[in-house]
Amino acid sequence: MSLPSKSQPRVVIESITPSVDQGRFAVKRIAGDDVAVEADVFADGHDAVCARLLHRSASDPAWRSTPMTALGNDRFAAGFVVVELGLYEYTLEAWVDSIASWRRGLIVKHSAGQDVAVDLLHGAELVRATAARAVAARADESVVRRLDQWATELAAADSSIAQRVDRARSDELLELAQRYPDPEQVLRREPPLTVRVDRPRARYSSWYELFPRSTATSPGAHGTLADCAERLADIAAMGFDVVYLPPIHPIGTTNRKGRNGATRAAPSDPGSPWAIGGDTGGHKAIHPSLGTLADLKRLMARAAELGLEVALDLAYQCSPDHPYVREHPEWFSRRADGSIQYAENPPKKYEDIYPFDFDTPAWHELWTELASVVDYWMDAGVRIFRVDNPHTKPLAFWEWLIARVKQRSPEVIFLAEAFTRPKVMYRLAKLGFTQSYTYFAWRNTGPEITGYFQELGRPPISDFFRANLWPNTPDILTEHLQHGGPAAFAARLVLAATLGASYGIYGPPFERMEHEPREPGSEEYRDSEKYQIRTWGPDPAGTLVELVTRVNRIRREHPALQDDRGLAFHRLDNETLLAYSKSTPDRANTILTVVNLDPHDTQSGWTDLDLTALGLAADQPFEVHDLLTDARYPWRGARNFVRLAPQRPAHILEVSR
Amino acid sequence: MSLPSKSQPRVVIESITPSVDQGRFAVKRIAGDDVAVEADVFADGHDAVCARLLHRSASDPAWRSTPMTALGNDRFAAGFVVVELGLYEYTLEAWVDSIASWRRGLIVKHSAGQDVAVDLLHGAELVRATAARAVAARADESVVRRLDQWATELAAADSSIAQRVDRARSDELLELAQRYPDPEQVLRREPPLTVRVDRPRARYSSWYELFPRSTATSPGAHGTLADCAERLADIAAMGFDVVYLPPIHPIGTTNRKGRNGATRAAPSDPGSPWAIGGDTGGHKAIHPSLGTLADLKRLMARAAELGLEVALDLAYQCSPDHPYVREHPEWFSRRADGSIQYAENPPKKYEDIYPFDFDTPAWHELWTELASVVDYWMDAGVRIFRVDNPHTKPLAFWEWLIARVKQRSPEVIFLAEAFTRPKVMYRLAKLGFTQSYTYFAWRNTGPEITGYFQELGRPPISDFFRANLWPNTPDILTEHLQHGGPAAFAARLVLAATLGASYGIYGPPFERMEHEPREPGSEEYRDSEKYQIRTWGPDPAGTLVELVTRVNRIRREHPALQDDRGLAFHRLDNETLLAYSKSTPDRANTILTVVNLDPHDTQSGWTDLDLTALGLAADQPFEVHDLLTDARYPWRGARNFVRLAPQRPAHILEVSR
After folding, report:
1. Whole-angstrom Cα distance, residue B110 to residue B100?
2. Of A3, A124, A403, the CB nearest to B1
3. What is the CATH code of the structural domain delimited by A11-197?
């Protein structure tokens, strides 16, 4: 076996955090975050090692360098703050630090009364070599001068040994020397790791979904984007910041689905907005009954005035009447009889929808065209996309598309609507989706919720997966909501809004606590808006609007709820009650939420609070302030009594220390 | 952003196990082991995916392929048996399985009463394309014929739909087709991962260390290799299989250490065997007082007759009198005054030893010469090396050296004597050391032992780190042994020999329970053999020889103790008692050991056995047979009473079901 081609640096770098699949994917952060980097750094022998963190933003190719601090057990740490949106890179350099090693030995020997005259000369040699490297690195002249002088002082025969050892103790000069290690001994981790920096709304957002065609003022009429704009003030007043509209494009007529998903539509049935494309256009067109591009822009302008942002749906599929089908039949699969393959999930057939064949020989043209759809709506001002079923399109397509979009506009947010197997959901998040729907809707018991959110909260998952919690969607009316009555709606709202920094509701049916399924055992809504116009009109009495408004205000006023880091669960002696807290990193704001998961009965119990997570000392008295009711309770230590009736199934408690 | 250069396979492979640092280092196994490989394999959408494990030995470049089985949740598994010593490679291939996907849909639709005529034609197309690929892959003609016929049957207009669907159900034909996926859709994990296959002694070994110079029959005389050979029968009778000799080379006289490590040696002091090199040679010479190469070969031949193997010490350092110092001064560092740098760990100085400068400009020559030292002793027949302080030499040196040796002779075993920080110890094991010393000597309480061995037993650590447990060494007389009396020696022996499939004792002082330190607070032996000759002579009464013999026989007769996999700890209501079990993978042999960790008092308590780990049902009666005393106890369920006095501080219980 031949020798290694060159002498390798003696140092080893291992186990860098944060890291997603060893740097294959970017870590996600928000502008302003501190990226705390750690790594194991060590070498053979007893010499000191030195490590520095290198980091740079995509816009500035010059690396910035931060010395790393030893945490003990060969672990080193440093951090950097990400400021600009887009990609940052970071990596580590490490080396055996001959000057620090020498100095440590010198001081020990001198303290033990040993002769260190030769050691001082050795140190002077090391420092002189460092000064030479500083020259080669075009260091400031004053730096070179200081290093040269240090070497001279260490070697100075006319000073006492004690004086010279004292000079060796200079931390300032050691740190100066550490900037110029021997390049041959420096190991750099290649390739660098990456951070994707998003805007704050990627982490903290409150979504409201509504069908614009249901916003008309006269019952049964096809609502317009202009009608929808009229609804925005109410939505903003409830405290939401993202309004998400299902597809607004023309809808096909061939094999159009009727009310409640009937295979044959009545002539007046409007069809599913997800059956995109008709006579009047496809993914870049607006349904004529909704209005025009100008109407959309007016809607968005009105939203902006109210502090709302409009999210559009990105559903890459076609009705049989989509212009693509006629113009680019090569973009679709064919059945053995020559017909185009419709969507299916056997035995279910979706004959009103044709999926694209992403593997078509013409995939270059297809992918480019699909990307141009995003460009089109971005040109119109859209910066948030909810992506329909991304898990049924190639993962490589999304990785390419999202990188392409974010290179142009790093502020764009993509929410992945993938309700599929865990590993596929995680992969979509890794490859670039900004936020992800979750299994939250089906996690109802304490252990289910605790286990799931502890999993999401642990690195590396917490470094790439940002949960967006929805208690309902047009496709998901859970059994729990069907049977739990108003208490279930209230509890699920509080859970979504306090467990998740990002959450959303499919608004009108949720506010009104609609709970009738299409048929027993189904999660579809009866008379679903997917297939018919529902003119909701003004909110009747007894809706959840007041609770929603209050919860969103609590979220706005309490930064602990605007971040999923710092989530901790607390034990109770009654499993039907769930308690968890969120704190800001500086512990300035701490919110403890307690929810009664039983929608039918009053539940009470004693907490066993994790006082460390709350920043409280054992037996310390503190006050909790229920932000829902404004009640205040004096508590002390871990054990406190809680009682929640179905009429008011949650406490959102601000903890005062 | 440009499009990806070609359409990528849709499938993803993640989280392969076993894997050490993502394949950077080899996984360790023993010839005959089954390597159980698992991975996450998935793709977008609902199609079936297929995965196969590829594996090959270094001696046969042809890949062998094993289909992987779906375990659920996108996890797939397969295994292969390693037979030859040396390196194996393994990797995965995976792809979206269009035929399995088609077949699944076909069957569901047919069962739902849907028309599948077009689907059958589609399947026939897929199978025909597969047949064409089989032709391209030079498959056996009969295979191509069977695939073609399958396609014809699926498409056969003269058969009924039911008959054709029935043909589609053939698992045999599906498996045949799965051998010929579309190469463009196949993802292979590159580069492959590696397995280092060692001989069984790498996993299961019982070591005995003795200084050959202390084996003379007349007290005070310098023992010889011939004297040492006379001792072997006793060592074999005790049941050991490796005899490890500290360095047998000439010893320097310059700055030689005296008795008890005195800075100045008396003229009669023999010096430390680790101060290697003198007038009569260096690392390839034998100390003249010990004998000749012929004597060593006779010793090894005698050992082989007795089923023993001789391990030599590999200590890469020189006395000032080593020929290398004269012939290759460029291989050593110089102090600022021109003298050669001796070993030091400030404030300690080891002036009888010069370390090599592994980074010397002449490192090529140095490394090559050091490797030739191993070659030399291998030529003499040595196949086990205990490596002295590997952590003070560059990690890259060891990685190169061990790979080089094992390429020539994969049966060679290297034991790393690195008592240093955990990450450095693990790195040495990763880069190639076959076995490693551990912190066992200093782990005395139940939680300490449990925590440490649970850590060592978990992948990936268990995939690369093979512990060798030593209760004592010439450098380590622990405080516990100094003060614990005979009960401490007996308990530590049982712990080492039953926790570790590999263990060793520094024999003569351990048998005689020597426990006097050089000075209070020291872990050095008083009158240590490192610095003087100790003529142990025949074993006096009251030694541990009988216990050692019995424990080693138990190890030989019980395969559960020959492997560190299958270690499980059991709870007791008395923390001073420690219980753990080992089982063979087939559970044919299970040994439960209970040790009283208190050397001074009798301890008793009730077990809370992990019945799953023992393969027992709740409340099942079973018998435990104490292999130390031959007593048998009827036990039942998890809760059983145990009482151990210092006179007999352990049970080694065989569990009979």
Report:
1. 15
2. A403
3. 2.60.40.10
